[in-house]
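An instance as discussed:

___
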Amino acid sequence: MNIGRVDLNLLVYLDALLRERNVTRAADQLGLSQPAMSNGLRRLRDLFEDPLLVRTSAGMTPTERAEELQPVVRELLSTIDKAVQPRTDFDAHSAKRVFRIMASDYAESTLLPRILLKLRESAPGISLDIMTPSDVSFQDVEQGKVDMAINRFDALPQSFHQKDIWQDGFSCLMRANNPVLGSFTLDSYLDAQHVWVSKTGMGVGIGVNPDDVQRLGWVDGALARLGKKRRITLFTRHYQAAMLLAERTDLIVTLPSKAAVLQQDNSRVVIKTPPFEIPPIDLKMAWSPLLHHNPAHRWMRQLTVDAASEVDMHSA
């Protein structure tokens, strides 16, 4: 291939087409007409001597050649974006903008208050739009429609940038006069009734199957390795609701320790170490390669990391 034949705009078209897998949506994203995008796809097919996107029963499906090209094109465009970014620092104190952050209920409860404190001190004109995992897809993050996603992830697309925020263990939260406190052992834990609380990953969730231990997560997986199973009375995706239930019922909530410590000054509840070993979890921050070199985004990521370090220090 003669490099002189390559129109940089065609690579932008290809990037959009492979993300959207739909000519009309790709055209809308780039502000083009549908015929212009169709013409761009035709030129791309001629350039690479490959159909790139093939219509199937599942919609427009990328060919093997297209899947090979996607990370290469994404990296190339990201490098070019970095090169053309203005060499000016981001003035956080005078900035007026909104950062859209997808945060799990766990991250929102534990990390966001500290982020807001730091924003109030250093960037009073910046606002946050917090979205739940059910509001957002990986595609939204990849396209830069969401600035970052903060959650526990089973897996992330290879194109994403990511950073560990912290590692957290587990604690048990229960009301101060819960009968189980008389002898808090594995047997009494299993005899009690429990609240299951979790929301991992992104996209619209589905109902929980109590018998599907693999999908129930860390706590029930740890029990399964001991050949045990707890009695779950309520399934919820909201940590605040789970903690309220621990205070007002005899239900036990086993949850990440940084969430449990939010209740340390509440005399109506008690925080206990689980009577069995539970592997720690990792909270991660993920973002699109399209935003990786953006000065404002770099600043916000660093502020998030600094806020997480402060939370980690105070909850240790």
